[in-house]
Amino acid sequence: MTQTRIMLVDDQALLRTGFRMVLEAEDDFTVVAEAGSGAEAITLAASVLPDVILMDVRMPGIDGIEATRQISAAHPDSRIIILTTFDLDEYAFGGLRAGARGFLLKDAQPSELTAAIRAVASGDASVSSRVTRRMLELFGSKLPAADDDDASRLGALTEREREVFLAIAEGLSNPELAERFFLSESTVKTHVGRILAKLGLRDRVHVVILAYRLGLVGR
């Protein structure tokens, strides 16, 4: 069985211990490192190269957002999930902009935690499109305006891919996409993969962000 190698980053040792206990009860997870600060996380990420990092955002010194930015730039294969206390706060949005693949509340159920890690490890995002849209409504004014390159990228999509692109931006899941377009889920996954590749986007979250910047979903 392939092991997902996880690093825990939180300035509270007790929380790290709790996360470790939950994660190491899973056969396909192993915790390879722990860090108590953003600076330590940056150093450890370079030496350990974990598959997934659970990153607290509020830490003294280098906070989780800056640590996420540096790690994502230097080690893009280490996928980061932001841990936050408050739902839809600016720290969570800042973490996504810095390169995180999603966010979780610290009091998430163990099943939510493990599902998010598996999603991110497989290359998906652990933030739903609907949640992303809500975050954009709250903090989207901080995004740069769309440019000609943003608009020109859409020209690479087929008519059906553009329809799926807009439906993803609405917040539809793969089963909902399959129902709307009368397609199998495997065909939907193929469309989504091609859309991401053609647009040079990392995941579905960034589909929503691009659509928002282009004014294709409401501001």
Automatic annotation (TrEMBL):
InterPro entries attached to this UniProt entry: CheY-like_superfamily, NreC/VraR/RcsB-like_REC, Sig_transdc_resp-reg_C-effctor, Sig_transdc_resp-reg_receiver, Tscrpt_reg_LuxR_C, WalR-like
Domain Response regulatory: 5-121
Gene3D superfamilies xrefs: 3.40.50.2300
Domain of life: Bacteria
PTM-bearing positions, type 4-aspartylphosphate: D56
Family matches, as Pfam families: GerE, Response_reg
Residue span(s) of domain HTH luxR-type: 150-215
GO biological process: phosphorelay signal transduction system; regulation of DNA-templated transcription
Keywords assigned: DNA-binding, Phosphoprotein, Transcription, Transcription regulation
GO MF, one example: DNA binding
PANTHER family linked to this entry: TRANSCRIPTIONAL REGULATORY PROTEIN NARL-RELATED, TWO-COMPONENT RESPONSE REGULATOR
Protein's name according to its UniProt entry: Response regulator transcription factor
Organism: Cryobacterium mannosilyticum
Lineage: Bacteria, Bacillati, Actinomycetota, Actinomycetes, Micrococcales
